[in-house]
């Protein structure tokens, strides 16, 4: 969604998919970051600078629309003025939001949702008008009217009953041969206030709509050709995986693979809807198919990692043979709404990883009332994922042999039996992943997508 040519590719893909195809789009490249920057600038700095960022967002979309309507494939240019009016209205709305934030000197999660949703509110409407301009009978659907959610601003949960009810209006357009286009990432709560599903939530939106409508398939179109054996930005020999099971894809998304939002797979699982991850810039590439009965051609399917996590170790002699100690520890995390990723225990200690640094001071203070606490920042979580991994001999031995040169802070085997995770220092993360990839995927051609 970066420029007019990218929009044309998106519409070509939608058009080739056939009448009734529902398209859920993200904001244009970099727009959400710019919106958040504008909001933060309005809160802490200059309103004038925040409004300059707002004007840049408007100019960016005007230039994109101007470029698109200048394409030779455009047969109807009447929508150009409609696009200009929509951009003007949303930028004016954004400026009002920024004024309020600056005046109060406060940026609440509710306000941030209103601001950050503007990217998808722009792109989805404009893309629908562009589709009409090249002869595709598109109709814009405001996601706020369909994607009903809780009021947990910043990470709202979908209201599935309301979503199933309101998805009928999308189905009506689809059944009549039109191409519904809507923005992902945002929705609204019961009072109509704008909410968001969290960063990367456009994929999640598409999956939820697919579930609500009983879609035959959900396609995630991105800038890479499927899910890879590791992050190709850091592992040049990584390659696209042909097939993954739902459970494998969910683990990879949760433990650091950036291609999918971690919640994307869950709705597809409910109705066994296959998910395809494909490349907008290379549409002929098969990408990755994710479904329940995917074949596993090797015990380890992929290696995911994420940096900048924190390890919290709780040590107490009172834990030995004591009931209720673990409950007390996790009640503290629940109280402060801090999610724990991995857990590893011994007779007198518990180690946990978290990927958010917010509220950690409060958590640490309460934990120190019942135990000794050690905090290790700047750590990296590396996960081997594969549904047959724990039934295969030698996987752990090979993994730890590959990691012999790196100090390991923590080890955990997932309860699902499809992941084995270790924690190392940030500075060792990429080198450790490269060593693991060479161990489990040896003798592979060098080019990505080989």
What does the model show?
The protein folds into two domains: 4-215, 3-Layer(aba) Sandwich (Carbamate kinase), CATH 3.40.1160; 302-440, VC0802-like. By secondary structure, it is of the alpha/beta class. The strands form four sheets. A six-stranded antiparallel β-sheet has the order 11-12-10-13-15-14. The protein is 41% helix and 18% strand. Helix 7 crosses helix 8.
The N- to C-terminal Cα distance equals 26 Å
Portion in helices: 40-55%
Report the biggest beta sheet as strand number plus sense, adding barrel if it closes: 6 strands, antiparallel
What CATH first level of the largest domain would be assigned?
Alpha Beta
Low-confidence stretches: 446-450
Q: Roughly what fraction of the amino acids lie in strands?
A: 15-25%
Question: Widest sheet: strand order?
Answer: 11-12-10-13-15-14
> What is the number of helices?
14
Structural class: alpha/beta
Net shape:
globular
The count of domains is: 2
Q: Quick recap of the structure?
A:
With 450 residues, the chain is of the alpha/beta class.
List the helices and strands and how they pair.
Elements: H1 4-16, E1 23-25, H2 31-44, H3 47-69, H4 79-104, H5 109-116, H6 118-133, E2 138-141, H7 160-175, E3 179-183, E4 186-188, E5 194-196, H8 201-213, E6 218-222, E7 243-245, H9 246-254, H10 265-270, E8 275-279, E9 288-291, E10 302-315, H11 325-335, E11 343-345, E12 349-354, H12 360-367, E13 372-385, H13 395-402, E14 410-413, E15 419-425, H14 429-440
Parallel strand pairs: 1-3, 2-3, 6-8, 7-9
Antiparallel strand pairs: 4-5, 8-9, 10-12, 10-13, 11-12, 13-15, 14-15
Helix pairs in contact: 1-3, 2-3, 2-4, 3-4, 3-6, 4-6, 7-8
